[in-house]
Amino acid sequence: MKMAVAGSLKEPPRHVAIIMDGNGRWALSHSLPRTEGHRRGADAVKQTVRACLDLNIDYLTLFAFSSENWKRPKAEVQTLMGLLRFYLRSEIDALIKSDVRLRVIGDRQALEQDIQKLIHFAEDRTKENSRLNLTVALNYGGRREILLAVRAMVRDATVGELDLECISEKHFEERLETHGIPDPDLLIRTSGECRLSNFLLWQCAYSELVFVETLWPDFGKEELISAIEDFNSRERRYGGTRE
Ligand code: IPE
Ligand code: IPE
Ligand code: MG
To answer: The CATH number of 15-232 is which of 3.40.1180.10, 1.10.260.40, 3.90.1520.10, 3.20.20.70?
Structure first.
């Protein structure tokens, strides 16, 4: 049973999604190389996972690497992949112990073989866990995900497994990488940028958006609570009227 969270939080959102932005600017503001910003960003990921466990959040989805981030200098991409490798190796025991289920969305085929294996291992070892569903978006792009779902529907319709005239949102969602995961209630983006950058385009249709100035390496439990308080002050109408 969900317990009310200590302090002023009414009820936590079921699903929090975060666009973790601002590592580079954090590094610049501390006269450090961008790579150090990414390293600190990985610490903020651990803190945020812990905070979600404390706050009884069921689903956390983190945007870690977009399908457009390959445009960055090779050395930076390598640092990010190295951190990912390190995280997957060093955090697996903690994830298992904390009853966290890890899933990865995005095109993993383009990632190095050993990373693909680590992801497979972590997903498999945590698949029965249920306290927190942690989804990491890696080489993820919302438009690509939508196109793949459309392609899958056309394929199924062509072989007679789907009636074109009866296609519904449900059929579409079943073919998204996020199938089985509820839509985000709260989407947070750090670093003051106010855009989606190709993240969960379908799923965020009715998410509450919270943009915070905090740079990702400085994000932690306090910032999460404050974003949830903002969320709790909103009235979600879904196109309806006030009660
Ligand atoms: C987020 O921080 C990390 C990734 C996108 C992988 P950035 O690296 O985008 O940081 P800024 O936006 O340059 O400050
Ligand atoms: C979005 O951040 C992607 C991630 C946080 C992984 P970017 O820094 O890549 O986004 P833009 O380029 O500012 O839109
Ligand atoms: Mg950025």
So the answer is: 3.40.1180.10
